[in-house]
Amino acid sequence: MPRKIIIDTDPGQDDAVAILLALASPEEIELLGITAVAGNVPLELTAKNARKVCEVAGRADVKVFAGCDRPLAHTLVTAEHVHGKTGLDGPDLPEPTMSLQDQHGVDFIIETLRAEPSGTVTLCPLGPLTNIATALQKAPDIAEKVQEIVLMGGAYFEVGNITPAAEFNIYVDPEAAEIVFKSGIPIVVMPLDVTHKALVTAPRNDAFRALGTDPGRVVAEWTDFFERFDKEKYGSAGAPLHDPTVIAYLIRPELFSGRHVNVEIETQSDLTRGMTVADWWRVTDRAPNAMFMGDLDADGFFALLTERIGRL
Ligand code: BDR
Ligand code: CA
Q1: Contact 38 CB / ligand 1 (< 6 Å)
Q2: Is 196 annotated in the active site?
Q3: φ, ψ for residue 276 (rounded to 5)?
Q4: Which atom of ligand 1 is nearest to the CA of 126?
Q5: pTM of the full structure
Q6: 3-class SS at 59?
Q7: CB 38 within 8 A of CB 87
Q8: Nearest to 43 by CA among 7, 14, 78, 84
Q9: 150: three-class secondary structure by DSSP
Q10: What are the structural domains, with CATH classification, of the chain?
Q11: Is 255 within 8 Å of 25 (Cβ atoms)?
Q12: Going residue by residue through the chain (312 aa), what tens digit of pLDDT does each one get?
């Protein structure tokens, strides 16, 4: 039985690859819908980009919803410096022809979870946690419907990418992250510690291009664009494909390893706002609330990704 999931996202080239990986994996994943959130770029663009990505996969039938247009308590911080003006710079993609659903993304999450049996839907947040936290606040009864939240966000050893202390998704809406991490729902975290090992090196990029398909070329061109930032800034061998790790985990969890530890979110300090304070060394008696990943089999991850993109 494929696992039912909702992808909550702010595309973003790496979000886009995650969506393609899910759509290419119907045996393992049943995508109930995509909810867009403000993050890498404002909501209007992330909601449009999500639809462009579905159309790259030839899947105009996927339901895409617009969710929250700003974080719970702060003004929106965006990342055009990484993802470009549209959020999805790189290949020339046509304007989407499929329409956005009328329902608000948060209401879609609530309604969908209420209609499913307990513990059967996995939420996959790939951006700031605003939609998920808002849904949990509005309808606390949905928590028991969630099987697991598998999210990209935070860091321990790699610390921060938007401030010295914080990773982008958590930094943009730390109040939302705090609600999610205190929800009691089982959580799996893909932090920068993992995603900075998922680097699209030149041979890995060539492998996408060599698929000889449109989706393969588009993925190669997205990562071409996305990598200029990381290469310049970090001197890394290529772009980290952060968000697809979330979907890869659903398909091949054995590619990842980590620790079940306590993770708290800093919301008060100006200096470290959005920091994920993970008790990696278990030096407190705070109860573990998340499986915090630390490592991945990068070759296995890219083999899976390339094979699946090749199916589209
Ligand atoms: C995260 O921030 C975004 O820019 C990426 O899409 C990813 O979700 C990495 O910090
Ligand atoms: Ca993202």
Answers
A1: no
A2: no
A3: -95, 105
A4: 8
A5: 0.97
A6: coil
A7: no
A8: 78
A9: strand
A10: 3-309 (3.90.245.10)
A11: no
A12: 999 999 999 999 999 999 999 999 999 999 999 999 999 999 999 999 999 999 999 999 999 999 999 999 999 999 999 899 999 999 999 999 999 999 999 999 999 999 999 999 999 999 999 999 999 999 999 999 999 999 999 999 999 999 999 999 999 999 999 999 999 999 999 999 999 999 999 999 999 999 999 999 999 999 988 877 766 666 777 889 999 999 999 999 999 999 999 999 999 999 999 999 999 999 999 999 999 999 999 999 999 999 999 999
DSSP 282: -
Q: Can you tell me the distance from the alpha carbon of 152 to that of 191, in angstroms, rounded to the nearest whole number?
A: 6
The Cβ-side half-sphere exposure at 160, using a 13 Å CA radius, reads: 17
Query: Does residue 65 contact residue 35 with C-beta atoms inside 8 Å?
Result: yes
Which one is catalytic: 83, 104, 242, 260?
242
Pocket test for ligand 1, best of 131, 151, 152 (most atoms within 8 A of CB): 152
Tell me, using a 6 A CB cutoff, whether residue 152 lines ligand 1: yes
Pairing of strands 121-125, 3-9: parallel
From the alpha carbon of 242, which atom of ligand 1 is closest?
Answer: 7
Q: How many whole angstroms separate alpha carbon 108 and alpha carbon 50?
A: 16
Token pair belonging to 192: 């920068």
In contact, 180 and 133? CB cutoff 8 Å: yes
Amino acid (one-letter) located at 105? G
CA dihedral 127→299→239→36, nearest 10 degrees, is: -20
